[in-house]
Amino acid sequence: MEKTTAILLFSCPDQKGIVAAVSGFIARHNGNILDADQYSLQPENMLFMRVEWDLEGFTLGRGELEEAIAPLVKRFGMHWKIHLSDYMPKVAIFVSRHLYCFHDLILRHRMGEFKAQIPLVISNHRDIEPLADFFGLACRYYPITLENKDQQEKREIAELEREGIDLIILARYMQVLSAAFVDRYPGRIINIHHSFLPAFAGKSPYRQAYERGVKIIGATSHYVTEKLDDGPIIAQDVIRITHKDSVDTMKLKGKDLERTVLSKAVRLHLEHRIATYGSKTIIFE
Amino acid sequence: MEKTTAILLFSCPDQKGIVAAVSGFIARHNGNILDADQYSLQPENMLFMRVEWDLEGFTLGRGELEEAIAPLVKRFGMHWKIHLSDYMPKVAIFVSRHLYCFHDLILRHRMGEFKAQIPLVISNHRDIEPLADFFGLACRYYPITLENKDQQEKREIAELEREGIDLIILARYMQVLSAAFVDRYPGRIINIHHSFLPAFAGKSPYRQAYERGVKIIGATSHYVTEKLDDGPIIAQDVIRITHKDSVDTMKLKGKDLERTVLSKAVRLHLEHRIATYGSKTIIFE
Amino acid sequence: MEKTTAILLFSCPDQKGIVAAVSGFIARHNGNILDADQYSLQPENMLFMRVEWDLEGFTLGRGELEEAIAPLVKRFGMHWKIHLSDYMPKVAIFVSRHLYCFHDLILRHRMGEFKAQIPLVISNHRDIEPLADFFGLACRYYPITLENKDQQEKREIAELEREGIDLIILARYMQVLSAAFVDRYPGRIINIHHSFLPAFAGKSPYRQAYERGVKIIGATSHYVTEKLDDGPIIAQDVIRITHKDSVDTMKLKGKDLERTVLSKAVRLHLEHRIATYGSKTIIFE
Amino acid sequence: MEKTTAILLFSCPDQKGIVAAVSGFIARHNGNILDADQYSLQPENMLFMRVEWDLEGFTLGRGELEEAIAPLVKRFGMHWKIHLSDYMPKVAIFVSRHLYCFHDLILRHRMGEFKAQIPLVISNHRDIEPLADFFGLACRYYPITLENKDQQEKREIAELEREGIDLIILARYMQVLSAAFVDRYPGRIINIHHSFLPAFAGKSPYRQAYERGVKIIGATSHYVTEKLDDGPIIAQDVIRITHKDSVDTMKLKGKDLERTVLSKAVRLHLEHRIATYGSKTIIFE
User: Fold this and answer.
1) Which of C64, C164, D105, D136 is a good FRET partner for C115, with 20 to 30 A between their CA atoms?
2) In this predicted complex, what is the ipTM?
3) Which pTM value belongs to this model?
């Protein structure tokens, strides 16, 4: 049986006594710290911390946590969030016609890699239908054109809200989301881009890599911000290629990268291991 | 100007309140935690922790630390050590005829990668002389034969004690140290072995790798224990090879690995980032 | 439209004039060499070569190749094989209860990564049934016990022969094949082992890796020979782990490795890019 | 004793019979091919080939090679070059104040990794003096200012010509060479840039990487062309970093990369394993 835990993720100006205060708070209520990690960003003097403790024997009830932590929050000026490990975040996956990332995510979900529910799959193409059926996933189709984009996005958002979606994964979704959409889910939309960002942002990164003659290609998973392929990077990986690689063989090799990198980013997010600060992520691994 | 810090490294049976007690102790004496990392090994239920704090404004003097921490040590049953960052550990390097690891260590030392002094170099061959001269390093020669090994080791140990050596680095030292020698420096002798241990322990690992037809070769840095190539592993790295690689080209490629892996292990040790438990290391990176 | 090509793979004692003779043979019959690669193993003085040419305009018919090449074969004492790229090799996949490698192979097959047919899936467990059904794959069940192993293997072999299977993939098949079985398919059975061989051969490699405290884990794909986990290695890959990794998280991380490494080995085999010599493979990539 | 070999490196429009003609030419003069590699770039339909053969027993003298090969060259429209393995190319190293790449190159040269002579070291700073002295290398100082750049480059070129330099290595030389200089040594100046190009070209790449928050940093070795950091890439490598890495620790980690990548590029060049085509390199490894 897995333990039920609480995860406190916070940031605040760094000063003496924070770790003592936070761990003291947990100890006073009989909590056992399982994992604690912190990072002090300099010269900004910002502290980022993640602490996870066992809820067994913890003397505060779930409803009491927020009030109990309030004095700490106030004293240090924390931005904070508490996550309980038995809450299963709700994930929506957006997909177009390249289905390998989607398929991989679903497989990993089935194998228990992600603690999450996937109540919603959204696509602008019907290609996904047989696969969604096989896996018993609800799938909604919103074909996007230049004319209907605004309207379709509104429908998508309505759907996302209805389902109470916590995280959106763009699993090779070939549409750029509008700023209005992105603003609605800050730090809650994860994209996979098939290059080693910031190299080869935008269209056809493998084609760009081929033209430039690089010896290594990559994949980058990042939070989506208004500016294309520019959000905080969560995970990256690369593989070697040679002059023998065509754009097609790059695509083939890149698939493995994309899958691995996207799933890693999703797992980190679902385990509340990511803090963001400007264009950066702090990963508590 | 770099900060002067204290680093507390300890292990003890895991229980509630340890982090709170330790961070509380530091906070009470006005210390600012710069870095804290911990790991709870299960099912052994052992906690390993490394905490580093700024000594500026810390109200305890160096001489008072031990006494002040005693109640904590007693309460939790800690094995512990405190290191002050302004102490420069004394390192001895043992070397034979392959000098590239030695040369690399000295270069890194010169470039400021290691906070340490190197008062002593020991070799069983004279090959090192011009290099040691150029770098202005004291070098002692103890040629080892089957007959004189005991006696020579005793002389080496006497030398090591005279210099107050804290860490011994075997930089491709081609002699096996006796159990008596090893026992004298538990967790304080670092070796580099040119294979991905536990594969290809012992002699001629590249030859072994060639015979087996592996596609990847490696290097391993580890603490020396009585059993050859069997001590706790600190760092490992690998590179790809192909069928085209001969034993000679493996040696060539392996050199880069050996240098990088050995220097990484040395740096981790000198920064007090390593805890050992049985055959394992916990690396607080 | 992809070109139809012929691939000549041969080995023979190395001597002057072989490349000239082989490429002259192809040129004389109006063939255009698309790819040629060779390797001279020393001191064994064995030449291994793979040459692929376009069949368009080639003046020899398929039925005439063997006879036409006979003088070359005789002159140089070649062991040889010619493969035509429009023949789709028949692959059988053996699987037990861990289905992720199987699932991955099928997905890659669907995405066109493998030029092959998969007429047969063999399992000793029923777990695979829904997946095989979804993908429309014929699946045969041969539960193995100590008592029935001989008999079941005979049935499996009969099935393999009936289907004219060219290649057997053990996709985490948890049974050791008998020597009699292995002898029947020399260089035609590919296994995936979840360690960096020769480290951690045999049972529970992740458990072994955990106990030893390594910092890197691996996966190895190899041809199956009589001796367990000892056949010629085709492909290997590794990933870093830390002291925080449990056997369970190693398994999780290892899955990605196993899939990538196995599929790479299968692709190399299907593209006739592998020559074997004793315990080694020559990979013409 | 190492064999004396000839290496023919050529490119030409691809057509049937080239390999046969080239290998036939070698065989007719009793040459034994040790290594042959080719690549057909599509859709450009350009063939690149490298073939190396043993000169023992080869019936053509050194002075006869050019004339003997002329018909082949004419027939296929080859751009070509023949290198003899017993010619020791003359290398000049340019360096500024960061000496670790220089030091590494010299060490490798000493250890026999490069078949080359290093008759000339050029620097715009005196920092290198003790090191050059220790290694017994002739060093020339040409401090560069905005005003004297043209003049100093002319002096450098005169020096390079006097020594008959074949290859120039910019080992962290912090000056941009003028177009006039670069034009004089096309495909014969190798630079190391401390980023994964094309990401972070230009100044302070580690700073740029830090600002962008990437999870991997790299180094790139490339031929120098008129456009800064834009020439054909020879070798690249990367390492993982985390949010904990500052610009300083990136610099530290990057040093290992830079050294390895630069030395790899130099070795490939000295072994005549590189063909260039536009912005690309074909590496015959």
Assistant:
1) C64
2) 0.94
3) 0.95
